[in-house]
Amino acid sequence: MSKGLPKRSEDYSLWYNELVKRADLAENSAVRGCMVIKPYGYSIWEKMQAELDRMFKETGHTNAYFPLFIPKSYLSKEASHVEGFAKECAVVTHYRLKNADDGSGVIVDPEAKLEEELIVRPTSETVIWSTYKNWIQSYRDLPLLVNQWANVVRWEMRTRLFLRTAEFLWQEGHTAHATREEAVQETEQMMNVYAQFAEEFMALPVVRGRKTENERFAGAEDTLCIEAMMQDGKALQAGTSHFLGQNFAKAFDVKFAAKDGKLDYVWGTSWGVSTRLMGALIMAHSDDNGLVLPPKLAPTQVVIVPIYRGEEELKAITEKANEFIRALKRVGVSVKFDDRDTYKPGWKFAEYELKGVPLRIAIGPRDLENGTVEIARRDTLTKETFELSSQPIEQKILDLLDEIQNTIYNKALQFREEHTTEVNSWDEFKDVLENKGGFISAHWDGTGETEDKIKELTKATIRCIPINQKEEEGECVLTGKPSKGRVFFAKAY
Amino acid sequence: MSKGLPKRSEDYSLWYNELVKRADLAENSAVRGCMVIKPYGYSIWEKMQAELDRMFKETGHTNAYFPLFIPKSYLSKEASHVEGFAKECAVVTHYRLKNADDGSGVIVDPEAKLEEELIVRPTSETVIWSTYKNWIQSYRDLPLLVNQWANVVRWEMRTRLFLRTAEFLWQEGHTAHATREEAVQETEQMMNVYAQFAEEFMALPVVRGRKTENERFAGAEDTLCIEAMMQDGKALQAGTSHFLGQNFAKAFDVKFAAKDGKLDYVWGTSWGVSTRLMGALIMAHSDDNGLVLPPKLAPTQVVIVPIYRGEEELKAITEKANEFIRALKRVGVSVKFDDRDTYKPGWKFAEYELKGVPLRIAIGPRDLENGTVEIARRDTLTKETFELSSQPIEQKILDLLDEIQNTIYNKALQFREEHTTEVNSWDEFKDVLENKGGFISAHWDGTGETEDKIKELTKATIRCIPINQKEEEGECVLTGKPSKGRVFFAKAY
């Protein structure tokens, strides 16, 4: 199965595309830019959703659902918002088909034209704030902490499975607060929730930072983000959390009466992560043999493959396997026993490597005799013979899963550290970007013009101003103008 | 809060609409026919989803995700399918907005017209079978057992919250099989899964049956369904499971090689339930005081309300409440302690009645002295003083929750039985329909013409031919022509 997977070193982009398809994660559909998320890919997304949903609820949020369609006039109510999204909107103009008079098939019924066109939501601030207007009267209705799991559509011209698709799945949190401070705090909290999720579950180290004005969300006063580093040295924005100020409250006239009776506009935030995280997960850890999954997000954590000739041997191995399965399930490990006789063990080994199953247990007749099994780790591609008498199998597996989770994280962290370079001149900047990639930590004069110029010259963008930016006097790497601290540049997905 | 909720006996329809809004379940949005599912309503839907999803997985299904958009030409490939859905399709024709030249705002960019219009999925058979063509080559790829949780759009002219909305949330299962028998079995299995879910979790007794040809899904060879009875004597179709024969396989050329190498078209099924179930849940059990929720689907099963004057009393009550909360959470009961001082106990009682919380525990200073609490049941609106020394509180609550679940079910079952009438003449038919409502069990001559005629005359439709239909010679209630068994008629949502 993994035979013929392109090598990362030769064509990273092709490697990614092929891996996504061959590991049964996703594929392109008949509709331009829209993907099909296949069962195996979706099962990983479901694990992500479950953890994120739990984290959102633990921080006081509840889920709700808002309409797919947004009246065109709503989208236009916040000026910079419509500016940001107008160029990529799917527009519904009619509500009926009919048979063509000439019998040529089904056509759009021209008489079923909508009075006002509807936009398929690219994000839901406008429809949600128009709803919040009716939900919020007084300080007692605040804070309002709502999240939505939904599909959204942005008509991208160049698409890539998971990373950039016309339709994608995401969650979007939309909160309303009585004070600026509280909304700012929420914005930061959700960036931290995302960072914690990425690091703890995806084994993906991230830089927490703030977007520059150029890169800010359309309609936000401030955009916080988490940025990850992929194995090809390109950055990937993995989640954003926006402080909306009173922009949407003003656009939709959402006011509340404070304790003292005074009316004021509500303060807002919004924050989201999407199926793009699947792309990050795949690109950060996988290798030329296939997917490498962190155990905490692997749908199957352990696969047991019997090595046998004939029914007799299979029966004895199955007995042992069932014993393991019971023990592993008891401690919450997801395990699969692949006793299909239509495939050979070698084929199965390659298949589960391609699918990124963290641990493989092989049991043969000699193992039964010796009281051993062979345990193979997906992340390091190493094997060991495990003596069953040495410790309970479930303890061994739990320890290994923990170790794998940590190893994957540390490997990614080490890669990122090796690919984060401080540069102090324009030549150095270009050289590092060209020959090494990764994050470039450099001084910048703080202007959008310089940022644009650098992007134009090198395709590198400012990924973020790190939250923990050190105060440091310096000179802008391009203009030589004064700067108070370094920001992170990179080429990005 | 519940003050002023209209009475069921006076205006059932208004009662329903008001209840949905006041209990914070859903509301209409700015987009015609599209609803906002509010946090409380959504939390009930999430509980339904979780149980259904578990049941689907236990029967071997996995989730996946397919595109929102369907090319117009795809929808047309199965003749009766497009016939069934063409009249209610939302159509995307453009992919960009732009600023109007006259500065009047944002308009649809006429230059960004799609080559082929896209339909917002009303159901996904076509896009899924076009995908299955690439997934299925041989018998080894079968059965393919996939489910999708998604939003769909059907441009209904008359809409009602949850019951009939332009956009709704649902799950749609789409399976592919090597033999007719296996597909038929799957169709039946999923009807039974739905029936089990309705009865066990929603406390909603249902009739399992088969749709007549007139009422069949557009593109199916056979449609099985579960039908429930609402308190106003109208029926509600709560779930359907379709045997698709080889219709979609033929439309999308999906063939497989059998073990003997012979090529044949694949057999298909599809099955779905939607947020319509929320409407059924509300209408089946609730009363003039508000929502009545079966404990198995109640987001909060128990609310504890302190009755106190001053900090001292509250402190002592809180201590006791925390003890209960720990004990209840340990046995998996969801419990909320409402110690807000901004609302009075009476207000809270009415509020939790409106929201359908199954059990309310009130604790006052005298209770603390006496070692008692007051427990109130939402379903019967009865109260009892519970002696804490008599048995552990968590056992008492678990027993009560079970009893409530059963009581609600039995009440609905009794109502349905009282509202299921065998009739043997046309006069009787009209009389029962007019004055009593409910299911009418009557003989029918088996023709679509008679069915249409009865619908035209009375608005009653054949809800189903019951699965357990008894063989019984009889005469059609309208035409007098021979019939082999009774079918269920009703007015329906």
TrEMBL record, chains A, B:
<keyword id="KW-0648">Protein biosynthesis</keyword>
<comment type="function">
    <text>Catalyzes the attachment of proline to tRNA(Pro) in a two-step reaction: proline is first activated by ATP to form Pro-AMP and then transferred to the acceptor end of tRNA(Pro).</text>
</comment>
<keyword id="KW-0963">Cytoplasm</keyword>
<keyword id="KW-0030">Aminoacyl-tRNA synthetase</keyword>
<dbReference type="Pfam" id="PF09180">
    <property type="entry name" value="ProRS-C_1"/>
</dbReference>
<dbReference type="Pfam" id="PF03129">
    <property type="entry name" value="HGTP_anticodon"/>
</dbReference>
<dbReference type="InterPro" id="IPR002314">
    <property type="entry name" value="aa-tRNA-synt_IIb"/>
</dbReference>
<dbReference type="GO" id="GO:0004827">
    <property type="term" value="F:proline-tRNA ligase activity"/>
</dbReference>
<keyword id="KW-0547">Nucleotide-binding</keyword>
<keyword id="KW-0436">Ligase</keyword>
<comment type="similarity">
    <text>Belongs to the class-II aminoacyl-tRNA synthetase family. ProS type 3 subfamily.</text>
</comment>
<dbReference type="InterPro" id="IPR045864">
    <property type="entry name" value="aa-tRNA-synth_II/BPL/LPL"/>
</dbReference>
<dbReference type="InterPro" id="IPR004154">
    <property type="entry name" value="Anticodon-bd"/>
</dbReference>
<comment type="subunit">
    <text>Homodimer.</text>
</comment>
<dbReference type="InterPro" id="IPR017449">
    <property type="entry name" value="Pro-tRNA_synth_II"/>
</dbReference>
<dbReference type="InterPro" id="IPR016061">
    <property type="entry name" value="Pro-tRNA_ligase_II_C"/>
</dbReference>
<dbReference type="InterPro" id="IPR006195">
    <property type="entry name" value="aa-tRNA-synth_II"/>
</dbReference>
<dbReference type="InterPro" id="IPR033721">
    <property type="entry name" value="ProRS_core_arch_euk"/>
</dbReference>
<dbReference type="InterPro" id="IPR036621">
    <property type="entry name" value="Anticodon-bd_dom_sf"/>
</dbReference>
<protein>
    <recommendedName>
        <fullName>Proline--tRNA ligase</fullName>
        <ecNumber>6.1.1.15</ecNumber>
    </recommendedName>
</protein>
<dbReference type="Pfam" id="PF00587">
    <property type="entry name" value="tRNA-synt_2b"/>
</dbReference>
<dbReference type="InterPro" id="IPR004499">
    <property type="entry name" value="Pro-tRNA-ligase_IIa_arc-type"/>
</dbReference>
<keyword id="KW-0067">ATP-binding</keyword>
<feature type="domain" description="Aminoacyl-transfer RNA synthetases class-II family profile">
    <location>
        <begin position="27"/>
        <end position="294"/>
    </location>
</feature>
